[in-house]
Amino acid sequence: MNTGSDVPGEVAVASDGAEVGEADSGRHEHQGLGSRAPQYVKEHRLLHVSWQVGVFVVGLAVVAAGVIMLPLPGPGWVVIFGGMAIWATEFVWAQLVLRWTKRKVTEAAQRALDPRVRRRNIVLTSIGLVVVGVLVGVYVWKFGLVMPWKIENQ
Questions:
Q1: CA dihedral defined by 44, 45, 46, 49, rounded to 10 degrees?
Q2: What's the CA gap between 93 and 8, in Å, rounded?
Q3: Is the pLDDT of residue 1 over 70?
Q4: Which residues touch 9 (CB under 8 Å, ≥6 apart)?
Q5: For the segment 2-41, what is each residue's pLDDT rounded down to a tens digit?
Q6: What pLDDT, in 10s, does the model give residues 51-103?
Q7: Which phi and psi (to 5°) does residue 30 adopt?
Q8: Measured distance CA(45)–CA(90) in Å, rounded
Q9: Please, which residues bridge with residue 61 across strands?
Q10: 94-133 b/e (C-beta count within 10 Å ≥ 16 → b)
Q11: What dihedral angle (degrees, nearest 10) is formed by the CA atoms of 138, 144, 148, 149?
């Protein structure tokens, strides 16, 4: 997966030497990539590694809960992206994945707002509903409508 930009020349560097590519300078906020841990934690290697392990474990638990919620009731995708946001507070790869996801969602939203695409989606949805209605009508005509709670012989 390409987590960078589609624009050539964009560079991703950790927050120590945060560098935003020249092609990217006008589009995104000038926020560096890398750890957002408190300065005291960054200065001590053992604390920083412990901090990263803690952030990873908490993010993993949230992402796992989101994956469990996908087939079960609950906001699965929202929780998964929440776990990714937790990881993005510490890991560059998660920050890049979130940037890529945000860009793709924005592009999809812009495409969905295009009048031609909206008309096409409305027409396809209408055709699908008519087909489903016809299939249900044929089934009811052929087999009748028997409610499961109408038990005649016990």
A1: 120
A2: 19
A3: no
A4: 21, 22, 23, 24
A5: 455 555 445 454 444 444 444 444 444 446 676 776 677 7
A6: 888 889 999 999 999 999 999 888 888 899 899 889 988 888 888 988 998 89
A7: -85, 60
A8: 14
A9: none
A10: bbbbbbbeeeeeeeeeeeeeeeeeeeeeeeeeeeeeeeee
A11: 140
Asked if 13 and 21 touch (Cβ cutoff 8 Å), the reply is: no
Q: Tell me how far CA of residue 49 lies from CA of 43, 46, 53, 57, 86, in angstroms.
A: 11, 5, 6, 12, 16
Give the amino acid at 131: V
Helix ranges (H only) for 8-114 are: 39-43, 45-69, 76-88, 92-112
State the pTM of this model: 0.52
- Count CA atoms within 13 Å of residue 139 on its CB side: 8
Tokens 């906001």: give the residue.
75
